[in-house]
Amino acid sequence: MELILSNLTKQYEDITAVNEINYIFNEKIYCILGPNGSGKSSLFKMISGEISPSAGSISLNGIDCASEAYRSRLGYLPQHFGYFSDFSGIEFLKYMGTIKGLPKSAISAKSQELLEQLNLTSVAKKKVRKYSGGMKQRLGIAQSLLNDPNLLILDEPSVGLDPKEIANFRNIITSISENRIVLISTHNVIDATYMADTIIMMKDGQFIEEGSVDALTRNISGQVWNCLLDQKNASFIESNCIIASRKIYNGEVVLRVISNHKPSENAINVHPTLEDAFLKNFATKGENF
Fold first, then answer.
1. 88-104: pLDDT as tens digits
2. CA-to-CA separations, 68 to 49, 77, 124, 154, 286, in angstroms, rounded
3. pLDDT tens digits, residue range 131-144?
4. What are the structural domains of the chain?
């Protein structure tokens, strides 16, 4: 299974949100990382068919994204997904199955199967308005899987979830990812660290770097430092370097610094994380986190 983007572009008047992207996605989990305004949302809306490209093309195994055959192979959970709060969970899934054009004979059985898979059987007859945030996200995932899609798109899926729900959500995604192309848009580098086979960093409408967590962190090996400093020297480094973290320890300042050069005499090289790689690509000097 291949999702092919060819010279994919989205223009909004004088703003180019997505700029001539060429890429081939295969059957695994991809996390697209990037700051607000990087083009992630426009990219996902085009791939999901929510908006049309200004130029270029999208195809899944040779099937054009504008066709019904493409849509039948697509599962989509947008960032702001609308629920009918007076429906129960099972009623909502049956309704979505009808909207997706699934055979009536299959809708009930598939809905029950997904409720069980996503640990929602006990609340299947409960009104959706009484669901927790995590339950609603799981219900959203369930509706995206009703048609057993080859391509699953999840836009900022862990926003608003508590840590326990996020951990459960990650486990669910990895368990259902086999034999699918899974695209996840996220700001959360921890989500990407745990879930992604391939991470793609996006900036100014283009893919600027890709690889596994290990590959991306290797790329900045030797560029992440811990420094113990007095306030004066800390202020100087904070004004001239990318700072990943700042703590106070026994009256001195402990900085985690991302820099090509050793920022202070006592700086110690430390193992980089995906967050460090993200900041290296997207942060500016003097910007504290």
1. 999 999 999 998 889 98
2. 10, 18, 30, 20, 50
3. 988 888 889 989 99
4. 3-214 (3.40.50.300), 218-282 (no CATH)
